[in-house]
Amino acid sequence: MFTSLETLNFMRDFGKDMAGFLVDAALVDLKTELVSALKSCYDIADDLHGLILENVLSDSHESHKLSKHAWFHIVHDNDSKRVSRIIIEFKPKWLTKADNIYCRNCSLSQMRDEKRHFCPLDLVFDQAIRAGVFDLLQALHPSVRARIGQAYVIVGKVLIDYLLGQNSVLKRLRDLQQQFPTYELSKLSSAEEVSEELRKGMSLRDVGVYLEIYHASRRSMFVAAQESFYSTEYEVRPIIFDLDPKSATRFEHWKTTELRLQEFCNSPNRYWKPCAEG
């Protein structure tokens, strides 16, 4: 269990590499009485500090679940039901490609007997991005797509343009993951063998990402979409959240999962298309 200060310092260690991407965070002091009250209800550390993070979804919004780790948030104009902006939320997980039929994400989903939604690698490799965005968004219920109209079409175009760019948050995250490989997972036999680099690598593979899409003028996306289909008039604000340190005591879970995945990563599945090769 890590303190708020330890978590904030961990985030700041990645500050240079993730400049402009990390969610805003600030350390605040907590009263002893509040900490005592919290400890009586929850298993938390003796920590007289807390972290305040930007609430990306603070405005009036509706949320639609796309799959286990993916959401489509519609933020409204003031109190109206018009679309102000769209926020896509998901966990990209492992963005490094292994020499297998399926990446680690898809292998894990198959092991858990989950239905295929999208492969995160399809949002990183240029030749697969269009298909990846289609897979990501097509899970939104048809009635919701119809209700938001052209805004849904715009979101797809804007996402494709953004993800094809070299400054995509997912490409940056992939590059960082490559700096902290996880090859030794299956060989671990104790917590003492877990290196600092491996812990960082596992943290980078468990972050969440928001992609906030809005019109450059900040006017209603609903209105703007009726007037223009030019995706260049829209902007994407990427936000990485849930970047926190991982305990070495999780090594047994990591190792067990890694070994179990070997059964799925190279076993053809007619219901699951092969992952992008990069």
Give the topology, please.
Layout: H1 4-13, E1 25-29, H2 32-39, E2 49-53, E3 61-67, E4 70-76, E5 83-90, H3 104-111, H4 129-137, H5 142-148, H6 150-164, H7 169-179, H8 196-204, E6 208-215, H9 221-227, E7 234-241, H10 251-265
Antiparallel strand pairs: 1-2, 3-4, 4-5, 5-6, 6-7
Keywords: ATP-binding, Kinase, Nucleotide-binding, Transferase
Enzyme class: transferase
InterPro entries: Ins_P5_2-kin
Overview of this structure, please?
By secondary structure, the chain is an alpha+beta fold. It has two domains: 1-54, no CATH class; 60-265, no CATH class. Helix content is 36%, strand content 17%. The protein has ten helices and seven strands. The strands form two sheets. A five-stranded antiparallel beta sheet has the order 3-4-5-6-7. A two-stranded antiparallel sheet has the order 1-2. Strand 4 (70-76) and strand 5 form a beta hairpin. Helix 3 (104-111) packs across helix 10 (251-265) and helix 4 runs antiparallel to helix 6 (150-164). The radius of gyration is 20 Å and the shape is globular. The mean pLDDT is 90.
